[in-house]
Design brief:
Blueprint lengths: L5 E5 L3 H11 L6 E4 L2 H10 L2 E7 L7 H10 L1 H4 L3 E5 L5 H10 L3 E4 L4 H15 L22
Parallel strand pairs: 1-2, 1-3, 3-4, 4-5
Helix pairs in contact: 2-3
């Protein structure tokens, strides 16, 4: 697997990061962790991130702030982000997440199977398509001078 296939896990609580890591490690993707919005921004700017699982409520730079910033930059705009919140379902948060381009919004405690399915799907379709092979040149048309 290439470095461009990493899944970034972001939460300010180590126990939540451990739970995310435990849930997603069976997928076999390289996992990178960050404990703050600042660290998350640095990680996505370094590159190599295919999917981000991002806590909404963090001190300092929130998950929504990270998503806003990612949407402004060409190099991070296409990285799918799954937002995670422990604050319960909130229609305002849902609208904001949708407006900012979040791929999904999950409420803690997260069902590990659902998270794996979502990450696997987003991971598969977030990678750029391989370049198409150049078509083979067409054979030259036969002429009266060309032996057949």
């Amino acid at each position: 697997m290439s470095a461009a296939e990493k899944v970034l896990l972001v939460d300010d609580h180590e126990d939540n990061l451990f739970a995310l890591h435990s849930a997603l490690s069976p997928l076999g993707y390289p996992l990178e962790s960050a404990t703050s919005g600042d660290a998350a921004l640095k990680a996505v700017l370094r590159g190599g991130i295919a999917v981000t699982v991002l806590d909404v409520v963090m001190p300092g730079v929130s998950g929504l702030d990270v998503l806003r910033y990612m949407q402004r930059l060409e190099q991070t705009r296409r990285i799918p982000v799954i937002l995670v919140t422990g604050m319960g379902v909130d229609s305002q948060l849902s609208r904001t997440a949708m407006r900012l381009g979040a791929a999904d919004l999950l409420v803690k405690p997260i069902d590990p199977w659902s998270l794996c399915i979502k990450v696997r799907y987003l991971h598969r379709f977030s990678r750029p398509d391989p370049p198409a092979a150049a078509p083979a040149p067409a054979p030259a048309p036969a002429t009266a001078d060309t032996p057949r």
